[in-house]
C-alpha cells in the first residue's frame, strides 16, 4: 500500500524517511496506484545534475488529460470539476461537470487538430480567467501540443518575446477581459504583439466582452463557431513520460525571461500528490486557489493537481477589490469554500480595509488556508489566522517555484504544527540543504544559508526552452550536485525552514517575480536616461515595491523630472506591464559601482529600505562619493 494520503505527523515522518531513503521504490508505489497509464515505466529515475539531465518514469506512456478527465467520468461524471465565478457578482456562477469538461476539452482538441496543431507544436495561450483558459490548456495536453500560457496582464512586447522564444504557431486569446469595473482590450494587445511574430499562423478568439475588434482574414478565427461544429470526442494522444507538457516563462536576473519546460509523468504524479496532502482534499470539498492560471500556481493547483484528484476547483475571473474588498469572503460564503489558497500581497491588501468586510460573511466552511508567492510577514499571518481562519484553520505557507513545478516546503495541515512566517518542513521526497558562500553545506539547526535541493523530485523543470546551458548555469553551477533555488533560508532550532527572500536580482512585487534587467532595459530606452538600477524596498501591501535610481544624460537640469518619471513608467508599462512600474524614482549623478563596473545593488537596496546604519563593505567601490549624494536625496 502506498502512502497517498498522510493523516498525522508521525505518518509524515515515517513516509518522509521512506521517500528519502528509497526514493525510487517510494515514487513507484505512488505512481502505480493512483494514476492511469497506457504503459508502465522501465526505470523510475535516472539523473545527473552535472549535465543536468533528469528523467522520471522513463518508458511510461500516458496522457495527463485521461488522468484529469476520462477516468473520473465513471465515478464522478456529474460532479463539478470547474466552478466558474465571473467578474460580476450578479452574473451566475457556472458549474462545469467532469462529463461536460471532458466534452469541451475534446471539442477544443478537435479544433486545434483541424487548425493543423500537432504533437510537439507550441501554442501560446493569452486569456483571462474564464473557463476557455483551463479548457485550452487541457486541449493542448490532450493532443500533445506544448502550451505556453502568458499572463494576460503582460504587455504586447512581453507577449511577442515569449511567442517568439518558443516559436508558437498559434495564439489563443479573447476579444477582451473584465477586470473589476474595467475592460481590457486583449485582442488589441495580441494584434500589436503579432506584428513582430512571423511564426504565428492562426489566432483563436473567444468572445467574452462583446467588443468590436479587428479580425485578420485567414489568421483570426472566432472560437465558438468552430467548437459548435467540432466532434465531442477526441482520443488522447499517447505521450512518453518525458515528453514536454508545457513551457512557462519566469523572470531571470538577466535579459530574457526563462522558458521553464515541464514534462508529463513526473509533473502529474507530484502535483497530484502534493495537492492531496497539502490541502487535505476530501471528495466533497470545494477548493479555491485565487491565483491566475498564467502563473505556475494556477497551472499546478487550479488545473492539474485538483483535476487529477477529481476535485472541484474554483476559477475566479475578477479581482479582490470588486465590487468591494469583501469579494473573496463573499465567494467563500457563497460556494462554501473548504480550502482557500492565496498570496500574502492579497492578504495585506484586504487587511488594510479592516475586519468589517470579513466579519460580514460566514466563513465557517473553511478548513485549510494556504499562502504562496513570497514570504508572509508576521502581521499578515496573524490577520489571516485570526480573521479568516478564526484560529481554527491551519495556514499552509507553501514555498516553491515555477522551476519546481510543485510545492516543496510546507506544513501538512492537521499534522505539522504551524509557526508564523515559517514554511516549516520539506514535503515528502524533498531534500533541502543550506549552503554557505564557499560551497559547503551547513549542517545542524539554527543556521542560515542559500537554499538548495540535493536530490531530484518528479516535477522539477527539465530545461530552459532552447537554452540548456542557461539552465545549467542558473541552477546547477553555483553548488556542485545541487539544484540552487536563488533563495536564502534559515533553519530554526527544530529544523523548520523560513524563506528569507531572493539572493539574486529577482524582486518579488505583489507575488510576481520581476527581474531587474528587463526593467532596466526598458528604462534605458528613454532617450534622456544614461543608466539605471532597480531595487526592491519593503511595501506594506505589495511586499516589495520598486525603487529606481536613474542617471540622466544631461544630469537632469533641463528636464522636467516629473515628466521623465511618467514617461519612464509608461515605457515600463509598454515593455513589461503595469506590475513592473516604479513606485519611487530618484535621479542621481551616478551609480555606485565596483571596479569591475558592476552596480552595487546591495548598497542601493539598503538606502532604498532606509537601512543605512551599516552599508557593509564599500572598499571595492570605484566612486564612494556618489553614495553620500544618493543618501542625502533618498525618497
Ligand atoms: C510558486 C511561485 C518563486 C519565488 C521563490 C521565492 C518566492 C514563493 C514562497 C516564497 C517565501 C513562500 N516564494 N513562495 N517565498 N515563502 N511561501 O510563487 O513561483 O512565481 O516562480 O516564484 O517566490 O522567492 O523563489 P514563482
TrEMBL record:
Domain AMP-binding enzyme C-terminal: 519-598
Source organism superkingdom: Bacteria
Keyword entries, A-Z: Acetylation, ATP-binding, Ligase, Nucleotide-binding
Keyword ATP-binding: yes
UniProt-recorded Gene Ontology molecular function terms: acetate-CoA ligase activity; AMP binding; ATP binding
Signal peptide as annotated in the record: none
Principal EC category: ligase
UniProt keyword Acetylation, yes or no: yes
Span of domain AMP-dependent synthetase/ligase: 70-462
GO biological process terms, semicolon-separated: acetyl-CoA biosynthetic process from acetate
Entry EC number(s): 6.2.1.1
Domain named Acetyl-coenzyme A synthetase N-terminal: residues: 12-68
Family in the record: Belongs to the ATP-dependent AMP-binding enzyme family.
Name of the protein described by the UniProt record: Acetate--CoA ligase
